[in-house]
Amino acid sequence: MKFEKVLPPLADRIRPKTLDEFVGQEHIVGEGKPLRVMIETGEIQSMILWGPPGSGKTTLAKIIAERANADFYQINAVLSGTKEVKEVIEKAETNLKYYSKRTILFIDEIHRFNKAQQSVLLNSVENGTIILIGATTENPSFEIISPLLSRCQIFVLEPLGVKELNTILERALTKDEILSKFKIHIEDRDLLFLYSGGDARIMLNALEIALKIVKPTPENEIFLTKEIISEAFQRRYFKYDKSGEEHYNLISAFIKSIRGSDPDAAVYWLARMLLAGEDPKFIARRLIILASEDIGNAEPYALTLATSCFTAVDYVGMPEARIILAQVATYLASCPKSNSAYIAIEEAIEDAQKYPELPVPLHLRNAPTKLLKELGYGRDYKYSHDFPEHFVEQQFLPDELKNKIYYRPTELGREKILKERLENLWSKRKQNKKVNK
Fold first, then answer.
1. Which Gene3D superfamilies does the UniProt entry name for this protein (predicted)?
2. Which of 108, 120, 143, 265 lies in the 20 to 30 Å Cα band around 170?
């Protein structure tokens, strides 16, 4: 099936224009429900729409703007920043001052804004210069700053069920200017709904792709088999969310590329995640973990840089945060690697679980009272700084583990220096043990 002209996506072509056309979310837009009352009375307040992808957040925002007779501006927090927000606020001030007209600012994925970016909105929301509608897939209690949250009403949207998806599908087949010209037969609607995961936009996008794969019969009939539907979902981008398979695939490829010292692959997978809308702070957290787990003492500065990366990303936000993430990812990929610290703590935890009650040697115990001193706590402890090279041989592990070595540094990067020093100390310990014998 070929379209005669370039058209907007099917999801946009059949987007509801009124509340009566809107499907689902009866708990907030049904008769007498809070959001519907707000829209019908025209008393629109700033709000946060919290729900999964494809549940109707953008559609509701546009319906609200239409009913409110307000100027409507839409930005995406992944692609926009403080500059764009301030520009809208300036236009809103002009609208209100000279034309007594309200302005609605719809910010999709508002949770992607950092604290500073969100703070820019506070005064304008407070004094009514703008009506903010924020859309988020994340819990606003964690992702939206408290002062802004207190100025907004929260409406929770639910995933669409089979009934709602079927209603939307029927509208597409019968009302769309292109699809309504054909008799479209879908072999297994339930399969289409299953693959959609409650996301109407994904369902409609996949339907559109499926219709491009097959050719209509001379009678203008189109038959969509199970195989065609499955192929359509394979051809579209993976659904990328925080519990989806592609989310874990991409972050896995990113981490493994850095571990494998390939900065080019690392920055490619980073770009893929950012374009898919991944939270930059999630990526920054993973870099902090990687800096210790896979680089460790081969380059101790890696941890400092990764921690600074998280702070900078939190301060700056997208889209500039992409530059910071790229700098740190490429540096970490280029660093010498060591997992010695990771192995050390894993082995130590294993022994700590195996021997959970081994006593601390008396000379290492704290002795804050006279009684404890009389019991031998702290006796014979040797203060390392009182000895040459600030080192003196003494036992720090329990007797059962006294010969155990957990940390085995590599000969890579800065860790090579640590290894040489420790080997020198181990040699002295062995010599001291022979002398003591």
1. 1.10.8.60, 1.20.272.10, DNA polymerase III clamp loader subunits, C-terminal domain, P-loop containing nucleotide triphosphate hydrolases
2. 108
Supply φ then ψ for residue 24, to 5 degrees: 90, 180
Q: What pTM does this model have?
A: 0.53
What is the pLDDT at residue 81? Answer: 81
Cβ-based neighbour number of residue 244 at 10 Å:
14
- The answer to whether 338 and 303 have CB atoms below 8 angstroms apart is no
Q: Which pLDDT belongs to residue 138?
A: 82
- Spatial separation of the C-alpha atoms in residues 169 and 194, rounded to whole Å: 13
Please give the Cα distance from 197 to 52 (Å, whole number): 10
**Token output for 344:** 């050390």
Taking the CA atoms of 330, 332, 338 and 342 in sequence, report the sign of the dihedral they define.
Answer: negative
Instruction: Give burial (CB, 10 Å; 0-12/13-18/19+) of 423.
Output: exposed
Residue 99, CB-side half-sphere exposure with 13 Å CA sphere: 12
Tens-digit pLDDT profile for residues 279-297: 888 899 999 999 999 999 9
Residue 216 has pLDDT above 60, yes or no: yes
